[in-house]
Amino acid sequence: xxxxxxxxxxxxxxxxxxxxAYIPEMLYPNVEELRQNYLKIMAEPSFKAxxxxxxxxxxxxxxxxYFAKRLSEKYTTxxxxxxxxxxxxxxxxxxxxxxxxxxxxxxxxxxIIAETGAGQHGVATATVCALMxxxxxxxxxxxxxxxxxxxxxxxxxxxxEVRPALSGSRTLKDATNEAIRDWxxxxxxxxxIIGSVVGPHPYPDMVARFQAIVSEEIQWQLKDxxxxxxxDYVVACVGGGSNAxxxxxHYLNDTDVKLIAVxxxxxxxxxxxxxxxxxxxxxxIIHGSKTLLMQTNDGQITEPYSISAGLDYPGxxxxxxxxxxxxxxxxxxxxxxEAMTAGLELSQLExxxxxxxxxxxxxxxxxxxxxxxxxxxxxxxxxGDKDLQNYIDYFKL
Length: 397
Ligand SMILES: *Cc1c(COP(=O)(O)O)cnc(C)c1O
Description:
By secondary structure, this protein is of the alpha/beta class. It folds into two domains: about 30-55 and about 95-205, 3-Layer(aba) Sandwich (Rossmann fold), CATH 3.40.50.1100; about 60-90 and about 210-395, Rossmann fold. The protein contains 16 helices and 14 strands. It has a six-stranded mixed sheet, sandwiched between helices. The protein has a four-stranded parallel sheet with strand order 7-6-5-8, with helices on both faces. Strands 1-2 form a two-stranded antiparallel sheet. The N and C termini lie far apart (about 45 Å). The model has no long low-confidence stretch (mean pLDDT about 95). Pyridoxal-5'-phosphate binds next to helix 11 and helix 15.
């Protein structure tokens, strides 16, 4: 590991060699407007006050840092769960959509667009648009619309319009293309809410800053409980990387705290059905940033696979590409079956049914031994209600 490295973004929008804004010329004014204003707006006292108040009264923050006693006994170490599953709408995603809707308002935008794969980000976006009374259009692949009917119904009930992406494989990347096309055609009144630490600069940094509330809370909550604000380990699953970015954020430059990022190995890293980007990916450009992604030798993006819809992404955000490349974070990968088993175990040891994404982070307890006195914070990114049918089918419940 390189000493004295800075793991935050630099002035040019890069984390090490990753990041930047590789966008079509026609998108430049929109992205540039955001880049010039996001830090200024986030620093305004009125912005901070409104963000903090909504996180408290609407999202339900601070989310508890829960000492998981029975889980800790089983793995003979001290395990704390950061309970993002208890947030309104059931996951960490709302932290970012609240931040971005306030940003959109400050920029004078009246129309919101988003893309969604499994529908979780679409629901979080539709929720904050309802909250603020803004028009909301969510692009979603036609195939995903059919697979994710409950989330489509939620978005409609919240007043959003769900527009099907009919081209290509009719999944997430096609929905992203449609959203970008929309933004190019509506540069003045529209803000595009991206759901993870991906996309052109400044999105990865802006989303990481909105999610940073997670590690900000871990610091004071741990201080209360253990007398130190530093755990030995912070563990989080990585799809695009936003919940991990939030859980890592305030520890990035403190190498006493070890960071573990957990990817989905699907049916096995080398099975051809996986989303283990750090193991399989190499440098390329996706969604406007230079990062690690899974691709063929001629640069075509490989279709990813995971049982968990939120981890089913062919890349990782540029922050994580840099954390991997620099060795600052250790990357581990967990198969579908390992994750499902860990989800069942948490349910029965602690009475908490986790999202399958979060089950991936929990599953490393079976792969890596920790010392008795280690403090291990695992970010429980979401609750398992949305995954119940998956758990039912898998365990024949
Ligand atoms: C979307 C989602 C993820 C993956 O997204 P990140 O940006 O990597 O955090 C993880 N957990 C849950 C519960 C999700 O909904």
